[in-house]
Design brief:
Layout (H helix, E strand, L loop, with lengths): L2 H12 L3 H8 L3 H9 L6 H11 L3 H12 L4 H15 L1
Helix pairs in contact: 1-3, 1-4, 4-5, 5-6
Length: 89
């Protein structure tokens, strides 16, 4: 999932403005704009917060985004998600 899409889904699902999302994450609204443009990436905590606002699985979303950003580490993220699912089971 692209960060831009995650932000849009979070905004729509939570009915919050970008300013409200930014305030909740203790960042400036310009940071979110930069994330949407691809100039910068949010940290793991922000990704999890946005996923929760979007009402999608937070850790799986984090794993997907991190895997796309760093394909060399994708195997570790897939393993972590697999273990999480097994432990929930």
């Amino acid at each position: 999932m692209q960060i831009k899409n995650l932000i849009d889904r979070a905004k729509d699902a939570s009915a919050k403005s970008l300013g409200q999302l930014a305030a909740d994450m203790h960042v400036k609204q310009s940071a979110i704009t930069a994330w949407k443009k691809g100039d910068y990436r949010p940290g793991p905590s922000q990704i999890i917060y946005l996923a929760e606002c979007a009402k999608i699985p937070a850790l799986e979303t984090l794993a997907e985004i991190e895997s796309e950003a760093n394909p060399d580490m994708a195997g570790f993220w897939k393993k972590a998600v697999r273990e999480l699912r097994q432990n929930q089971g």
